Automatic annotation (TrEMBL):
GO MF annotation terms: 4 iron, 4 sulfur cluster binding; metal ion binding; tRNA-2-methylthio-N(6)-dimethylallyladenosine(37) synthase activity
Alphabetical list of PROSITE patterns matching this protein: MTTASE_N, MTTASE_RADICAL, RADICAL_SAM
Transmembrane segments: none
Cofactor: [4Fe-4S] cluster
All copies of domain MTTase N-terminal, residue ranges: 1-106
Record-annotated Radical SAM core domain positions: 109-185
GO cellular component: cytosol
Pfam family, one: UPF0004
Family annotation (Gene3D superfamilies): 3.30.750.210, Methylthiotransferase, N-terminal domain
Protein name: Uncharacterized protein
Length: 185
């Protein structure tokens, strides 16, 4: 899921005029999309944020933003722990200067015959071992027309295989007015 979200965000940033760089030192904007489903993944994100402190001190005009599951409801605590980070935003929420990436067409950044298309975000199950509902919220399905439109835009760009993604794809559409399901999609 994070790979698809990162591709979507990267594509959107390129449409806004940003260009990918090879090193953080060359960047005007550094955006981390975090995954904390496992402790080791959370540790890697925290280590990366700590490693970026000297860069932010040396280059204070570089914007540093963090999204993904690390960003929970206690953003104030994150700001205290990582004061060098300019923006923290939850998955699906974006700072006003960024706009809404979901509303922009996703263009594959690298030529590939396959890609990922998110169809549902969040989960309603609240399993004792899982943090997804707490970090990503309740289930929110994209409409069939929105998903189909995205897939149609990908086809002329050489995409031949689409993997539909979500934390719980079996629940697709239960939250939409007409209650479509995965088979309808």
């Amino acid at each position: 899921m994070n790979k698809a979200e990162s591709e979507r965000l990267g594509s959107y940033l390129e449409q806004l005029g940003y260009q990918a760089t090879d090193t953080a030192e060359e960047a005007d904007l550094i955006m981390l999309n975090s995954c904390v489903v496992r402790q080791s993944a959370e540790n890697r994100v925290i280590n990366k944020l700590n490693a970026l402190r000297p860069l932010k001190k040396a280059q204070p005009d570089t914007t540093l933003a963090v999204t993904g599951c690390l960003v929970n409801s206690d953003i104030d605590q994150l700001k205290k722990s990582f004061p060098h980070v300019d923006y923290f935003f939850k998955p699906g929420d974006y700072p006003p200067w960024l706009g809404k990436p979901e509303s922009a067409p996703v263009l594959p950044r690298y030529p590939s015959p396959s890609t990922f298309v998110p169809i549902i975000q969040g989960c309603n199950n609240f399993c004792s071992y899982c943090i997804v509902p707490y970090r990503r919220g309740r289930e929110r399905s994209r409409t069939i027309s929105e998903i189909a439109g995205e897939v149609k835009e990908l086809m002329p760009r050489g995409v031949k295989e689409v993997t539909l993604l979500g934390q719980n794809v079996d629940s697709y559409g239960h939250d939409l007015p007409d209650k479509p399901d995965l088979a309808d999609l």
